[in-house]
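During the no-cost extension, the postdoctoral fellow (Dr. R.K.) reprocessed legacy sequence entries with the updated structure-token encoder. One reprocessed record is reproduced below for audit purposes.
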Amino acid sequence: MAGGALKYRHLNRKSSHRQALLRNLVTSLFEHESIATTWHKAKEAQRLAEKLITLGKRNTEASRKKAEAIFYTPLSLLPKLTTTLRTRYLTRPGGYTRVLRIEPIKEDQAASAILELVDGPKDMRFAMTARTLVRERNSESNGGEVRDITARNIQKVTRFREGGVKALEREVGRLEREEGEGGGGKGRGREEMEKRRERAERRERVYPSQDRYGELGGG
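Re-encoded structure tokens follow.
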């Protein structure tokens, strides 16, 4: 209709085919927790995935029936939705998924993206924040201090994740061990221990207080 607002993307498919495509995408998303597809498909699948998690958090008979009608493999995914994912997102008010642009993955160079469940084992922002934290702690140019933008990202990836700060520190420690092994590990010995001690002393300043960044969203 002329002048009407676009409520959703048709994806060049008739209604039944579009719904089947989105059901297939969210089924794969909840199974693997991260999928790569085109940007427009990811944005439409994101809307359906958010609704599914809301249904899982309600966890009533009616909401379970609605979720069961969407999944192609409800026997394996419905228990995950109402237990694992419900527990993960119970205190999060929204923003359960994230869409990240990536290089085109198809020959036609269509805009591509990764659609993922946040705070999960494949959370890319969490992994990138951990790598950035390792790099900035080891940087001599800024004295090992963490930039404000990194501090805000730390707040975002740890705010609603259970044991978020400890999980981030474990990932940082794992990355530091990998760097140590790849760069001649044993030869650094005492110097590496001194750096670790200095980082431990600065740790309280790394994580922003809730007062400073409390207004930021968790996604």
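The CA atoms of residues 9 and 107 lie 22 Å apart. The longest helix spans residues 39-58. The remaining legacy entries will be reprocessed before the final report is submitted.
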